[in-house]
Amino acid sequence: MAARNHAVDDLFSSLNSSPARPQVNFGSDSPNLISFDDDGDEDYDNTPTTSKPLMVFDRFYDSSSEDGFYSTGSGGGGGSTGGDNSLVHAAGNRLDYMMQYLDRKLLTVDGKDNELKQALPEFIGSGGGRGMFKLPIKAAVHPDRPPSLEFRPHPLRETQIGCFLRVLEGTGDGRQLWSGSECGVRVWDMDDVYTAGMEEREGEAEALFYESVRTSPTLCLVVDDGNKVVWSGHRDGKIRCWKMLQSSDDDSFRECFSWQAHRGPVLSMVISSYGDLWSGSEGGAIIVWPWEALEKAHLLPREEKHKAPSVVAKSYIDLKNQVTANGISCSILSADVKYLLSDHSGAKVWSAGPLSFALWDAYTRELLKVFNIDGLAENLTTMQDLIAEEESKMKFASNSKKEKLQSSISFFQRSRNAIMGAADAVLRVAAKGAFGDDSRRIEALIITIDGMIWTGSANGLIVKWDANGNRLQDFQHHYYAICCLCTFGLRVWVGYASGTLQILDLDGNLLGEWVAHGSPIIDMAVARGYIFTLANDGGIRGWSLSTPGPLDKILCSESSDRELLYTRLENFKILAGTWNVAQGRATYDSLISWLGSAAKDVDIVAVGLQEVEMGAGFLAMSAARESMQVGLEGSSAGQWWLDMIGKTLDEGSSFHRVGSRQLAGMLIGVWVRNTIRGNVGDIDVAAVPCGFGNAIGNKGAVGLRMRIYGRIICFVNCHFAAHLEAVNRRNADFDHVYKTMSFSRAPNLLNASSGMLPYLFLSCFLATSSYSFWILYGSPLVSTLLFAAAVSSAIQTTRLENAMATLSVDDLPELSEADMVVFLGDFNYRLDDISYDEARDFISQRSFDWLREKDQLHIEMKAGTVFQGMREAVITFPPTYKFERHQPGLAGYDSGEKKRIPAWCDRVLYRDNRPDSSDICNLNCPVVASVLQYEACMDVTDSDHKPVRCIFSVELARVDEPKRRKVFGEIITSNNKIRRILEEQCNVPDAILSTNNIILQDNDTSILRITNRSGEDKALFKVICEGQCTIKDRKQASSHHPRGAYGFPRWLEVKPTVGIIEPNHIVEISVHHQGYETLEEYVDGASQNQWCQDVRDKEVMLVVEVRGSCTTERKWHRVRVSHNHSLSDRPMPMEQKPDNSTRDHANVLHRSDIKWMTGSRDVVDHLRDLHTP
């Protein structure tokens, strides 16, 4: 009972202690960064009280509440019935969560009672916790980044095969978040953002979502808020139309209609300022789908809905064909259209390929300008010029060929020159960065509220352009590739391939920076007050639009205080086994003795083998395969061992092999029990050669990394340098393995950076030459391996330099980032200062204490020169090396001529999250392990080494994501300080319009003025067209029908449509009549009919949205715009009375009959009910 009582005491001491509140620091020391320590208001002070110790129940009270109880979150009086009900409900939830946690913890104590008694004493190496051996930072709230909403926790890669998310898009009202995946689209209702969400399945716990029927992979999305639809472009060349979900009882939904838009994949889409849908594909293909055809398809009755695809498909306008038909040729016409962007203010559309841009007129659909990433405009050459140029090149080539034929160079000389020339060309191209300007390729394109266009490149460079394609400014804050850009308000968010997220102002100054994900950020979108970042691993996190700011510090503190509410504990056992098989094969009985009997009560089995297969030819070919990163599945001998171990573990019915890796003679395999298979994934493998100049795999390590219950565990099978005196070489081998083992997948050679092409060239040379050298010349082992090592070492050095070039000075090795690392293998450390006979005597007497003092590994670990901070159970079994085969018992030790001194060569060491042995498992120390069994199988005689096994008991603390999301929502809605901050941030600046009724004559222009009456805050405005209606007898004869994405009719020009209004300033908007509306009907890409439509009976309703810089709350102002062709037909304008009390400027025209809107929820009904007087 003593162990049980001690564990319970530890439990309650941890509950009664105040959790560590992380020091928030999201950026560098740049003077431009916002300080997170200075709130600027003492109301945000979170200094903890020290008058009494913080007890268990005290931790769940709302520290921001003045009376010490929970706040109601209603914003009203504290004594209301609703407030009391909310108080009781919130208190009940917290008590339920706490009691569940205590029940789990007490059950864990009961279950671990015997394990605490069985845990073996351990030897701990010195030097841990410093430098590259520093433990990874773990906390309930990450201390190095702002608090985030775990909208979709990082799912296991194995569960996402065929359905990875690739794009994000939010609706204009922020109520829905859409995503395109490899199997369709899915949508989240943001009203459910804080709910517990879906039941946990296969290790996932994401928010509730709806998913479409299965489709071809989705490559792009565009939202049409005006018509409440979402367009998706797919790899099969189709465009699909989806209705924004109102409510759905089914888990899947279908598209409204779809059509074949391109022969190749639909890479990009955008809706122009006139409501037309533009789509881009491979080879410079850009097609416009006129709004008139899209509208016709939308309005088809249900019985005729099957005609919609053909109606739209026949209406296409092929811009590439139109340009080439006019005799124009340029580079953009052959480049893939990766990005399309609509500039509503300038009525232009931008298209971008990897290295160039094109500017199009959205009204006439004409090509205006082509320019490259340096801003240099390209001449739009005609076909005649191009033909002349080609003829000149052909003539020059013909003359050169004749001269070469007349030369008298010998065949061998020409062959030599050709080979050397090819090699030189490969090196020159590689020096430029794989394929020239590939590192400068465009990866992101956005337009900001001030009308500027921003682009991000693969080299981390950000460039700002004006609306006419003139390069204005460039800046670089990070050297990783930019994957995506997003803008909201006065900020630009930058997502990098390193997982880093940056916030910039519109001048390019850095406001904040932190690592948001563990993989590249591939897309971002804004919805419901958050900017959501999508990582390449499928995880989605939501960040407050006001980050960085005072809200972050409060959220960090409150979330940390409530960590018990969302902590979940797991327990499992690991069997780790190592065996140097000396190129032999074991009997089934030997495997049962080693693994079978011990695997009955464990959940994970990790096996490391050494010397599975050796030999000069095998090692040379293994080096070639490693250099080219091909054929890594292993040899036939390795497969035999995996199959036999799988048979021993009853693979299939009891266990499942999650991964394996072989490097020459080293092999690692990991099996997990089927009962926990759904919680294990993200399997990655790695190999590090250490033999012959770190080039050959006769020595080195193979590793496997896995994620279980959200935590990372690595298994590393090592085989270090042999011989008694090679201690320093063994230490160096470990150091090399620890520093360079990388589980990241090999880069795509076609998109690799500088140095990858010579790597490929040398790899091919090694693959053929090393093996031929051995076959043709019959070279012995050393000569062959030296030859292979000479070439492979150069390749490994090139690869390592390229990999390390992407790491910053502060980056730690990947093994340092794991929560638990298990090293197993033939480390080859021997016994010092002891003779063969002395060792045999001590072994026969089982006097292992004295022998351990001679152990080289313990001596080096104590000195802090190897396995720094690692743990090993105290050894109580005889040395495992070296034995005569098939001789049982201790009499089997080497008795030959060499009489090698017995040694503990075969070992199992580990490191978990504990900085101190007394630490218990919690979210700050999530993985705590102990050794229950550490022994050698002395009865196995199939090799000169004895197999060793070690059984770990692992306690793991993880986050219950649905509960944390719910707790996060409770903090947001109930904390008084947070509510006050959000209310301040949601304030919309007071703005007025000069008029709400504009009447235009032919080609007339009217000026609409917007005045920002706020003396402190900037106002952001956006002008959209709610729709067009028909007027008869001065009465509205039809409702307003919006064009695509609230686009403007073609007879009306509004400039600018977006902008920033400084405090106490005015902005002028030009509203211009462009004459009669010219309509065209396209059939199969050709214009069939063209006519002019009289717009005198048309009226449009403009809506001016005004909002603040860090909020999605808006206010709307409506302006009617109608056309009259004569003054006599013009109705008398409404009388306007000046209001001197609200006059801000002498020439301000105050808007008449203004009705203020309170928010986005009630504006739609008001807009529908407003009629023309």
Helix count from the secondary structure assignment? 22
Going by helix content, strand content and strand pairing, the class is alpha+beta
As residue ranges, the low-confidence spans are: 1-83, 199-203, 401-409, 426-436, 746-768, 770-792, 794-809, 1127-1173
Taking the sheet with the most strands, its summary is: 6 strands, mixed
Largest beta sheet: strand ordering: 35-36-34-33-44-43
User: How far do the termini sit from each other?
Assistant: 87 Å
Overall geometry? elongated
**Radius of gyration in whole Å, from Cα?**
35 Å
Mean pLDDT level? 79
Overall number of strands: 56
* Percentage of β-strand residues: 25-35%
Percent of residues in helices comes to 10-25%
What can you see in these coordinates?
The chain is an alpha+beta fold and 1173 residues long. Helices cover 24% and strands 30% of the residues. The strands form 14 sheets. A six-stranded mixed sheet has the order 35-36-34-33-44-43. Strands 46, 48, 49, 51, 55 and 56 form a six-stranded mixed sheet that branches. The N and C termini lie far apart (87 Å). Residues 1-83, 199-203, 401-409, 426-436, 746-768, 770-792, 794-809 and 1127-1173 have low confidence and may be disordered.
